[in-house]
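Course exercise 7: structure representation. Students receive a sequence record and must write out the corresponding structure in token form. The form below is the worked example handed out in class, using 3'-phosphate/5'-hydroxy nucleic acid ligase (397 residues). Read each field label carefully; the graders check that inputs and outputs are placed in the correct fields and that the protein name is recorded exactly as given.

STUDENT ID: A-19
EXERCISE PROTEIN: 3'-phosphate/5'-hydroxy nucleic acid ligase
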Amino acid sequence: MSYTEVPGVRVPIRMWTDPATVEGQAMQQLRNISSLPWIAGLAVMPDVHLGKGATVGSVIAMKGAVCPAAVGVDIGCGMSAVKTSLTARDLPDNLGRLRSAIERTIPVGRGLHSDPVDPRKLHAFPTSGWDDFWTRFDGVADAVKWRRERAMQQMGTLGSGNHFIEVCTDKSGAVWLMLHSGSRNIGKELAEHHMGIAHGLPHNQGLVDRDLAVFIADTPQMRAYREDLFWAQEYAKHNRAVMMALFQDVVRKEFPKAKVAFDQVISCHHNYVSEERYDGQDLLVTRKGAIRAGSGDFGIIPGSMGTGSYIVKGLGNDSAFNSASHGAGRKMSRSAAKRKFGVRDLEEQTRGVECRKDSGVVDEIPGAYKPIEKVMAQQTDLVEVVAQLKQVVCVKG
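STUDENT ANSWER:
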């Protein structure tokens, strides 16, 4: 489908979904965003839903400003996936051992490695720039510098919430590895530090929503935030790369006779800021729950833990600021999901998937998410499907 244009305050709201299906609070958030003095454009993806400050599934283009709450606390959160030489026929009937091996190797939840991972010991991790990346930690906000050791130990860990590690198969039977994670606690603490600073700035005092407080160009606050923001985005990218390398090593060990080979890893952020140019203007584009889908860009759009996911290639639609959805998108809050569903529902909706089936992950039940097939159908002018995946193992935080 092409987009529907809804009147905004300063800019129109371009929506790749039926506006009538968007909850009232989320629509109000979008109108609030469109009222910002610095707004240059606003695109809404089909997985749109209520978020903190800014709406999840929105692409916010601003001139000379960036909103830290729109980026969110999981700076650089995103996806990675890789196709393997394994096929579905290589997988054992009981996948419990493989799941356990993944969980032993990659800490989940609030877990961390007892010692920082040495990337030189991993088969598939590119170590160029690694030392420089950690040297630049000395330049981040003083408020979080004491977290260096924890940040190093959490490098290569999953986290909780909707983060996951999966073994999937595509329609041809090829096995894929996929994971979803971000910048862990260090990204959260950097985000909260800068959001607190933004709230106190004079130019933000008259905003309709205090969570839309921004930093503006050519100020010390903006320079400090951008430095920390881009470092945290890089942390998230390294975090996924380390996890994927650990994941690949698990698969090598579990399938020694297969001599498993791996294609090039696909990786994409979906909570981040990028400097891009549209209509002759240099803009700061915030994708909050959206991936970049420039012409030829590979991306990953996951569903829920019992449905499936898509590997896509961008079509380069400037009206959407070269973006697409980051997933299926929630249709109910975590608390609402826990009220509506129980463990038996989770067992039924994740039948055939080796995963947790307990009360601790009921809020991630497939029924709490929009149908991924419908979401994909609403963005055929944004991406083309390269592969459709179905998980057989899902590790949750």
